[in-house]
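Exercise: predict the fold of this chain.
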Amino acid sequence: MNSTKTINKMVLTAMMMCMVIVMTMIIRIPVPATQGYIHLGDCMIFFSVLLLGWKWGAVAAGVGSAMADMFAGYVQYIPVTLIVKGLMAVVVGLFIDMAVRHGFTGFKMKVAEIIGMVIGGAFMVCGYYLAESAMYGSFITPLASVPMNIVQFVVGVILASALAYALYRTPMKKQFAYVIK
């Protein structure tokens, strides 16, 4: 990758990191059972992977989500979020990479993107469940967060897919790491 492309990728990554932060913090729906909240940040995580690929998308996802935890006062979650959300993006991207290597195009590629996002979302739910089990010293207590984490990533899949679908029909299409033909 030449230096201009690298700089462009870094700038796009920083912009997506900011979008992850904003979408995590702008609409927060409190979950009293867990003292946490659900948000739209996962939409931007998934979109970051589609736009940047798994490596840069993981940076935007992990660092952006961890910074949102810091700004929101959930400092105990920063290391967990950095790892879980970063790896969530890696899982999504590697699944999509596999589909690209197998020659998926059109509808099959779109389905592969959605399946990759669902697998990444499931990874996130499991990652937070295990981390919270260790944090709370119980495998029962963190079960309360599982349904809301599922709702959060499902909404993220829907919104990221809709946003990507709309932008694939514009000149922005050439900016995507994974282009549906």
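Check your answer against the key: The mean pLDDT is 94.
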